[in-house]
């Protein structure tokens, strides 16, 4: 069973860039059968997809966040990353990384989540 | 694209819980469901409308009609108390869409 683990600063100042990394426990990043996604959840609210990066390096971003998001992956390190620029308090949330099945676009494995707070 | 779920559903212990997810022509999409217990990450419980991942009991099932997807949990247990989310891929907006979530309470 693959395991995913988010890491990065828990506190980011307004207007700065939120950066997170997800470490993947096995070699599934080398497979085109999977995409690698970020999803966030503000406290007490629902889930919001941020975007995905494919094993090829191609990316798709949610239209609502597209202008501020960049994702990449490093298969040699078994890691993929998220950068979200110009953050505000509205970006405060738990950020999850997840493995997405490419054929049917569902998330079969999730990290435990990383709390990120935007505050000065 | 919007997915509408009831905010809450209550079910008596041992009875059947039904959680709906409404969306325009949702029957034409693949619908997936996640269970999220308090303080934990979501877990996939149904994918492609009605398929169960390994480890999910047979009493959890999914179905889809033209405009409504349904998650059914038979013989509800205290451990089923969770938030449940439906999810689809919207090919028009190129976006993953989640329903707002339903809190299931087992009485």
Please state the overall shape of chain B, judged from the principal axes of the Cα atoms: globular
pLDDT average of chain B, as an integer? 97
Q: Largest inter-chain interface?
A: A-B, 21 and 23 residues
The rounded distance between the terminal residues' Cα atoms of chain B is 33 Å
Explained architecture:
The complex is a heterodimer of chains A (120) and B (107). Chain A is an all-beta fold and 120 residues long. Chain A has no helices and 11 strands. In chain A, the strands form 2 sheets. In chain A, strands 2, 4, 5, 6, 9, 10 and 11 form a 7-stranded mixed beta sheet that branches. A 4-stranded antiparallel beta sheet of chain A has the order 1-3-8-7, with no helix packed on it. The termini of chain A are far apart. By secondary structure, chain B is an all-beta fold. In chain B, β3 and β4 (43-46) form a beta hairpin. The relative contact order of chain B is 0.34. Classes of the chains: A mainly beta (120), B mainly beta (107).
Keywords, separated by commas or semicolons:
A: mainly beta; 7-stranded mixed sheet; 4-stranded antiparallel sheet; globular; B: mainly beta; 6-stranded mixed sheet; 45% strand
